[in-house]
């Protein structure tokens, strides 16, 4: 699997911005469900040219969805997805996400 296929998109929220601006540089990504820690850390290293210290991976459960239409109400769920929190070495940053 190629590196650009493993990492789907960065997650940018208030919580991830606080983790990114702290002492430890932690970046959060949405990744493919069939990828593992080693593939994710190698993909970040290859795509952004940074040194990865740690990679934590978790599966996020889908949220319930409710929709109303002509045929009545439809109850369903969004899909499960995988999130990876990547810790970089001291002094390293990802320029594409920082916007510098």
Question: Care to describe what's here?
Answer:
This protein is 28% helix and 39% strand. The protein has 100 residues and is an alpha+beta fold. It has a single domain, classed as RRM (RNA recognition motif) domain (Alpha-Beta Plaits, 2-Layer Sandwich), CATH 3.30.70. It has a four-stranded antiparallel beta sheet with strand order 1-2-6-3, sandwiched between helices. A two-stranded antiparallel ribbon has the order 4-5. It starts with a helix and ends with a helix.
Topology record:
Elements: H1 3-6, E1 7-10, H2 14-21, E2 26-31, H3 37-48, E3 52-60, E4 64-69, E5 72-77, E6 81-88, H4 95-98
Antiparallel strand pairs: 1-2, 2-6, 3-6, 4-5
Number of domain units:
1
The CATH topology is Alpha-Beta Plaits
Q: Count of helices?
A: 4
Query: For this structure, what is the CATH homologous superfamily?
Result: RRM (RNA recognition motif) domain
Primary descriptors:
two-stranded antiparallel sheet; Alpha-Beta Plaits; 4 helices; alpha+beta; 100 residues
How would you summarize what this structure contains?
The protein is of the alpha+beta class. It has one domain (3-98): Alpha-Beta Plaits, CATH 3.30.70.
């Amino acid at each position: 699997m190629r590196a650009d296929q493993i990492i789907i998109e960065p997650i940018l929220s208030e919580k991830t911005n606080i983790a990114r601006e702290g002492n430890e540089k932690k970046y959060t990504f949405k990744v493919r469900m069939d990828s593992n820690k080693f593939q994710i850390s190698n993909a970040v290293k290859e795509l952004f040219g940074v040194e990865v210290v740690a990679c934590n991976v978790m599966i996020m459960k889908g949220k319930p969805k409710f929709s109303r239409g002509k045929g009545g109400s439809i109850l369903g769920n969004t899909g499960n997805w995988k999130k990876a929190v990547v810790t970089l070495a001291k002094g390293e940053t990802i320029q594409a996400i920082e916007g510098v």
